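S1.2 Input.
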Amino acid sequence: MDPFVYRHSELSCERVSLRALAAATGTPAYVYSKAALLEGYRAYDRAFAEVPHIVCYSVKANSNLAVLGVLGKAGAGADIVSGGELFRALRAGIPTDRIIFSGVGKTPDEMRAALEVGILLFNVESLSELRALDAVARELGVKAPVALRVNPDVNPQTHAYIATGLRTSKFGIPYDQALEAYEEAAGLKGVEVVGADMHIGSQLTKAAPFADAVARIASLVKTLRERAIEIRLVDVGGGLGIRYRAETPPTHQEYATVLLPALRELGVTVLLEPGRSIVGNAGLLLTRVLYRKDTGEKKFVIIDAAMNDLIRPPLYDAYHEIRPVNEARLGGPVETVDVVGPVCESGDFVAKDRELAQAQEGDLLAIMSAGAYGFAMSSNYNTRPRAVEVLVDGDSYTIVRRRETYEDLVAGETAL
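S1.3 Output.
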């Protein structure tokens, strides 16, 4: 579903006018659709309905408490990668038996906090981490439920920065070392081996890499069972792509169809870690045009959103569609422009050499597909307050994170 459509000549989120929303909340503003969030989650739930499964939303994609709360109430769990994300998941009401802890650098304090509340699973990424977790668990007098994240050395065919399943990646235990690692884990007194885990990358637009990786994990699980290491959970990670421009990623059902034969045969509970594919197209960044500038060589549209608000274009050379809020602009002149922000960096841009409907000073623009890794990766660079976040539900909206103030920016600092 596309929650962002033109109604009465204005771009809207569900049934709320973005022009009216900007007047009430100011810009820049992140705007999310509750209906789209729920549909993103339910599409996975339907696709994997024939096997026991838990959809553990990847908190790093968008960690707003309202987003987590909406998904948690619908039945989602959480895939976390830090103690702070554990805190957020618990604060949002996500049950501990639906929380899995991933990431290569868990600290002993983070391990302790997760053990104390009793999470479902630790995805362990190295032998050093395994031994540290064993020590913390024995200190607390408990057993840590673990899966080893196995690196299947599968090319995910995505951006190098978000490819995680190759031998050169920092993530996971190499496939050819997995059996030895599992045997060590099975012998530790503070660890209970319950699962196997993989995650090959993000924004994948083809099904074949998923199929290849799951086939390797399924083979490993069968070998482990032959050695009396019983696996009852298989975490297939996340990474299903979304459409930013012209991509054609697999549908949820096509994704499931590729994975289910091997998983069904294993008779395990399947864990999924989707993030971007739930929240990415459920959100946009609403911004206002401040100025126009023509150097003779280039035309610039200067907006009030900047790289501190949305880092993906300069970091990944990522494409985000830009739509005018005023539908009438679509019938007017078209020009080629750079859309840039106020931050004092040449890398502060949303689009370069983009053909757009001509925008005038004061116009509102919607930067699409910004629900994932938008606000979550934002910063206060140039001492800029971070944007307001708004959740729309039908014809009403809630400010789910107020815009920061200058006082917020210096809270905790001391002037000498």
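S1.4 Remarks. The chain is about 30% helix and 25% strand.
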